[in-house]
Amino acid sequence: MLEIKNLHARIAEDETEILRGVDLTVNAGEVHAIMGPNGSGKSTLSYVLAGKDDYEITEGEVLFNGENMLDMDPDERAAAGMFLAFQYPIEIPGVATMEFLKTAMNAQRKARGEDVLSIPDFMKRVKAAASHLNVSMDMLKRPLNVGFSGGEKKRAEILQMSLLEPKLCVLDETDSGLDIDALRVVSDGVNKLRSPERAMVVITHYQRLLDHIVPDVVHVLSKGKIVKTGDKDLALDLEKHGYAEYIDTAA
Amino acid sequence: MNATALIKHTQAESNLLDRYQSSKDGLAGSIAVSELREAAVEQIRDRGLPHRRVEEYKYSDLRAFMKSAAPLAAAADEAVAKAILADQNSYGDLERYQVVTINGVFAPDLSDVDGLTGEGVVISDFNSALKGEAGAQLLRSPKSAANDGVIALNTAFVQGGVVISLAAGVEVSKPVELVQIATSEGAQVSRTKVTLGEGSKLRLLETFAGETGNGELNAVFDYDIADKASLATTRLIAGKVDAARLFTTIATIAGEAEFKSLGFMAGPKFARNQQFIEFTGEHSEAKIYGVTMAGGEDLADQTLIVDHAVPNCNSREFFKTVLDGRAKGVYQGRINVAQHAQKTDGEMMTQALLLSEEAEMANKPELEIFADDVICAHGATSGQIDEDLLFYLRARGIPEDEARTLLVLAFLSEAIEEYGEDDVTDGLEERVRDWLAGH
Predict the structure, then answer these.
(1) Mean of the pLDDT values across residues B329-351?
(2) Which of A118, A191, A195, B191 is surrounded by the fewest CB atoms within 10 Å?
C-alpha cells in the first residue's frame, strides 16, 4: 500500500536535512510502529506523507497504492485515503466541529466521484462513531478543537479518522499528553479500525502505546534513516535499553 | 459669495455647486431648513469635499475619489421600483415589514404602512416633516462631528426619506426592512429619522437596491433612543458600484437603553460607514459591529465615535475586515470618555485579514479618557491566513479554495455571531462566499 524509497527531505526555509534515505514498505492489513529518539525525523516523516509544504523532497519517492504521492496536494492525498492524526491537533475558532466534519467528508466523497451524504446519514455516522469514542454532542457543537483538553483533541482526531475511513492511517505521537484512561479509549478506537484493507503507521517515542496497539513490525528511526527493523519485541527491548545504541549506530 | 471661496474647486465640487443651484427650488423644507441647506452648501464651497488633509478623511480621500458629481436622481418610477424590489429580496423568507423609498423619497404605496400602523408604529414622509415647524430639528448634526463633510452633502441635497416613530412601550413583532431603491441614475440623498419612545423596541434592516450610475449615494440614519428602549440595526452595503457610497449613523441613547448595530460592507469601490453615537443617559449599552470585505482597488472605511458623555454606560466595538487585491481598509474608532463619565466600560477591537501582498489596512483605534474610574481597552491586529490551519483543513481532504473560504468565514463569523440576530444574519455567509468567489 505504501512504499517509501530512499526518501530525503529537508526544511524548505533553512535547508536543514531531516530525512536521509528512508526506506519503508507497509502492506494492507499491517500495523507498523516507528520509534526513535527526539529529533530523529519521526514527525517530519508524517508531515511529508501528508504533504506539508514546509519540507522539500530532495531525493527518493513515495508510492501510495502504486501512485506517486509526492505529486499530489494534501487534499488529494486525503481523498485517496491518506490520514494523518496530528500530534498537536490545531484549534480553529469559528469553524464548528460538525460543519467541519461534514465539509471534509463530502469534499473527499466529491473528489472520489461519490454522492454527498444526506444530513440524516451524516448525523447517524457521527453519532455512532462519537459514542464509541466517548465524544459528547456538546464537544461536536464547539468550534474545532477549541477549548478541548489534550485527551479530547486526540479523541476528536480518532473520530475524524473513523468517519473518513482512510486506507492508510499515520498516527503521530497519538499517546502524547494522554493519561492511562484516555490512552485506552484512543487505542480501542484505533484497534476498531484495524482491518485487512487498511494499513497503519504508528509513530511513537514510548513503548507503552504499543501495549495497546500491538504492531506487526517495529522500526527504529534515527538521524533520518531506519536503522533497525524487528517485531513487537524490538519495542520492549528499546524500552529496556533506550535509544543509545541506535544513536551510535547511525553516527 | 464666490469671493469667500478658499479653494480651487474640483470638477466634482463645481458640479455639486451647480447641482444645488439647479435643484434647490425643488428641495423641500421650511425656511429654517433652507438656511441649513445654504450653510451646508457654503461649507462645500469653502472647504470642498473632505480630503486627506482633514484628519477624519486622512485615509479616505473623497475629494480625490469623486471625479465628477451627477445631478440628483430624477423622479421616482414606481413600476421599475416594484421590479427591483421583487428582484433584490435581501432577506429571503424572513418575516418582516418593508418600508420603501424610491430615489430617496418615501413610497407609501410600496410600504407596509397598514401593518406597521397596526403595531403602533407611525411612518411618515420625511419631506412633509421638513416643511413643518420642527423641520430643522430633523437635520441635526452629531456633537462629535459638527462639520462633517459627508453630513453637509446630505443636508444640502437631501431629497427625502422616512420618519419612523414608536410611541412608548411599542414593540414591533417583526423586523422592519427599510429598502432604498434607485430607479434612475443620479445622486441619491436620503435621511431616515427613527424615534424610539420609552421602553419601545425595534429591529431595523437597512438595504439598498438599484443602480445610481455615476451618482453618489448618501444616506443618513438618525436614531433617537429614549429610556429603556432597544434598537438593533443591520446595514447591508453590497454590490459592485463605482460611485461613492456614504453612510452616516447619528445615535443618541438615553438611560437604561440598548443600541446594537452591524455594518456589513462588500463590493463598492468607495464606501464609508461612519457612526456617531452618544450616550445621554446612564446604564445604557451600545454594541457596534463591522464586517467589511474589499478587493480590487476598493476602499472600505468604517469610522466610529462613541461618546461616553454620562457615567455608567458600556460600549463594545468589534470590527472585522478582509482585504484582497490592492484594496484598502480603514478603521477609525474613537471612544471618548467625559470627565464625569465614571464607571464607563468600553472595549474596542479591530482585526484585519489580508489575503494578498498588496492589500492595505489602516487601523486607528483611539481612546480619549478624562475620567479616572473606567475600564477601557482597545486593540488592533492585521494578519494573514494561518498556514497551519490551512494545512490541517487540506489534510482532511478540503481543497485549498474551500479551506480558505472556511477560514475567512470563521474569521468574520466571530463578529457576526457576537452581534446575534441569527434570523437576520443567516444569509450573510452566502454573501461572503459570493464575494470571495466573484470580487
Answers:
(1) 96
(2) A118
